[in-house]
Amino acid sequence: MTTQELIEQIKIKKSFLCIGLDVDLNKIPKHLLKEDDPIFVFNKAIIDATHHLCVAYKPNTAFYEAYGIKGWKSLEKTINYLNENYPEIFTVADAKRGDIGNTSTMYAKAFFDDLAFDSVTVAPYMGKDSVEPFLTFKNKHTIMLALTSNQGAFDFQTKTVDGKELYKQVLETSKSWNNSENLMYVVGATKAEYFADIRKIIPNSFLLVPGVGAQGGNLQEVCKYGMSDNVGLLINSSRGIIYASSNADYAQAAAEKAQELQNEMEIIIKNK
Ligand SMILES: O=C(O)c1cc(=O)[nH]c(=O)n1[C@@H]1O[C@H](COP(=O)(O)O)[C@@H](O)[C@H]1O
């Protein structure tokens, strides 16, 4: 999917919501456990109930890899289901990869070619040659960690290196990489006060913003400082939406939570 197509979808749906499909067998309704593939059945129901309210889904691969081959099959079925039934949806493989160049190329093939995701999350720690292989794929997006939502973000990311915080160095340096127009960045919703500074460095790039919901991030604050002319934000909530109910009404309850966020987003877009 091109960035322009994503922008169009945000306008059509009046939403910049990304729903995180972080499926934990201990948290899904018990009656699903008798299914052959409970993870896929759960995802399908959530997707069918919420697709009109969001522009993106983000399965975090850890929640699939934890169940071995069965989990990877559930991930494959989920991305295929999305691509076949809702091709207008932007898909994020949240895998946080990045390695020496030839290895990164194989990671990129796994998520862009084999699983046909629109984007993958990547860690910047190994530098330019670990990220550039992802950027060579046409109409695919590499979402690089910049300032993460967790407490540990203060261990390295905000430390000053050569007179500037490390996350700012990451943002600035990455702009000079080949095909950097295919970069998006992760900035945690719990770090709302940093968005104005971040926008000075990357005024137009899309930001994936996790941390609304279970981690307590504030949507209004993020939008106040983080929105670009084209919205430029994908706000992710995972547990806050998909585990709204642990009963038979789980998909309906997820849709209600997603609707609440979409309503807020519609007003924010209108008042932009
Ligand atoms: O890359 C991410 O998506 C990510 C980066 C970050 O800084 N913080 C963060 O929470 N995430 C992911 O976003 C999701 C947040 O889930 P909830 O806290 O349940 O909404 C999880 O899949 C996290 O792994």
Automatic annotation (TrEMBL):
A Pfam family of this chain: OMPdecase
Domain of life of the source: Bacteria
Gene: pyrF
Primary enzyme class: lyase
EC number: 4.1.1.23
Assigned keywords, A-Z: Decarboxylase, Lyase, Pyrimidine biosynthesis
CDD domains according to UniProt: OMP_decarboxylase_like (cd04725)
Annotated organism of origin: Postechiella marina
Family, as annotated: Belongs to the OMP decarboxylase family. Type 2 subfamily.
Functional pathway: Pyrimidine metabolism; UMP biosynthesis via de novo pathway; UMP from orotate: step 2/2
Protein name, UniProt field: Orotidine-5'-phosphate decarboxylase
Record Gene3D superfamilies: Aldolase class I (3.20.20.70)
Catalytic activity: orotidine 5'-phosphate + H(+) = UMP + CO2
Domain Orotidine 5'-phosphate decarboxylase intervals: 16-254
PANTHER family: OROTIDINE 5'-PHOSPHATE DECARBOXYLASE (PTHR43375)
